[in-house]
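Supplementary Methods S3. Input chains for the assembly prediction are listed below.
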Amino acid sequence: MSLIDLANPSRFLALTARALPWLAAATVLAFAIGITEVYFAPDDYQQGATVKIMFIHVPAAWLGVFAWIVMSAAALGTLVWRHPLADVAAKAAAPIGAAFTLMCLVTGSLWGRPMWGTYWVWDARLTSVLVLFLMYLGVIALWRTMDDPAQAARAAAVLTLVGAINIPIIKFSVDWWNTLHQPASVLRLGGSTIHPAILVPLIVMAVAFTLLFVTLHVAAMRNEIMRRRVRTLMMLQAGARMGP
Amino acid sequence: MRLRGSDLTCVRGGREVFRGLAFTVEAGEALVVTGPNGAGKSSLLRMVAGLVRPQQGQLELEDGDPELSISEHVHYLGHQDALKPSLSVRENLGFWAALLGGGGEKSEVALAAVGLAGLAPLPAIYLSAGQRRRLAVARLMAVERPIWLLDEPTSTLDAAAQTILADLMRAHLAGRGLILVASHGPIGLDGVKELRLGQQQSKQRTQPP
Amino acid sequence: MTALCALFIRDLRLAVRVGGGALIGVLFFLVVVTLMPFAIGPDLGLLARMGPAILWLGALLASLLALDRLLATDHEDGSLDLILTARVPLELAVAVKALAHWLTTGLPLVVSSPLLGLLLNLEAKASGAVALTLLAGTPALTFIGLIGAALTVALRRGGLLLAILVLPLTIPVLIFGVAASNAAIAGPVPFGAPFGILCALTLISLVIGPIAAAVALRQGLE
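Predicted structure tokens for the full assembly:
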């Protein structure tokens, strides 16, 4: 199996049809191990059991960023090689990345409730993730408003790459804005050193989330390829000899 | 039923398009409006449809439904097809049938008549320009209205569709309908009256009879 | 009646199918609300005090955003010409269009406002008050906007002009919407007084909007 083989949509469909059950099984297995580990992980002496939200929150944040990296790589594929599969990969990754980012926001908010006494604080990290979420929604909206998939792909690719350059700048600005207003009393998630009893389940969960992302992404790419074929069939139908 | 326009003057964008125009169309008659570009063919049809206000002059409809205005008697087939790309062919026609006051039952027949029956569930975005025009023509059949105003109806239609349209027009005339067509070319009907628009002709008409 | 129903259903269908137009309004609302703390600082107490005003301004701008599509698309593809030849009063036709527009752009804003209230540290009661005033007030924004949409329908770049025309007309709605929200949260004015005026403004605009829009459209016919 070479990358060239995968680049053909039909080959991609055939190969992933075989790989998808294995991916799904690996995801379930990783989650089973991860959740067991989390269950036996010690509670925090200050935060109690709420610290366990971290095992969802942190991997979700990581995948929210990772999905954008995947989209940026696909965007390069779209702009440089004009490859349709890269378009499909970019389009399929956006809603999944947005979902993980939203999951990060919601868990962060639920975690913040007992910590800060309110569901939302304009903490630098949470705010950066919120901005990332907005960027995802913008990309999705761009995909949805354009009819021609190839045209939408190029526009979304440009936006994705601009985002890839800008997101670190936004992150830096938000950090600066936040420290300007709120000196050093912010809760530092995770702390400087992490105990192995927490680190191991965290890594397992991160692996499980990554597998989940890969599984969902491949499945979404398959759906998108099918959707494009339906679209092509419809256009052929309209172009073909008309009915009686 | 008789549609009569007298002493009509149309001004668009500060320019006088025509002045002192008069015409009469009887039931079962077709009037072909011809003339060079800018002579006011489209403006005249839009005026009858109630979409352009006459600067001067009158439009009268004899033996029409007294409850309704002239514009509520007309089918206006303009340059645009008034289709929504995201709605299916059937939904597009069904909507106009319901809005313009026909039942949904004739829509399927109309789609079949213009050769679009096989494409009914397809979103209109996939249609070609000619197919879109056919769908617009199907409106004429799906809803019964006595006065047809057709602005360049044959543009983008292929020969087969032009024949379909001519048949539709003949059937409409046979049913005591009225037709006003703005056209540059032949429309496939015999024995129609012609109204030539253009500066000299309209000047002649300003003179009292 | 079937004609108006058909128009209503068509507009709902179009709104749902075309690129999630309603969601773009909500997204705009979210972006505007997110930007506010960057400008005024993350002080939760201050944000909570300004919350109703921020939400109202955000909703006002977001509902304005989609207005230029309310009649312009129908004008561009010739649908408006045919609607004018339908056997329904133009006033009712545009009112039905505005109603469908409110359901697909205004109502999502109302529904999402409590969620955005969380970002601004609003309490449940305050969020509820803002949502209630938005529910009563956003129809007025749509129906006032309808007039602007009718006036600018034939212009190619009508969107910006539309905003300039409509925004001053929405000032009373903004005043009483925010006043009612603040009254519910802190007093001292009872909630009922400004809220009653807000409802009255909406009812008036429900009548004036379609009539003025129909006049504007007919005048626009040259």
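Chain C has ten helices and no strands. The longest helix of chain C spans residues 90-119.
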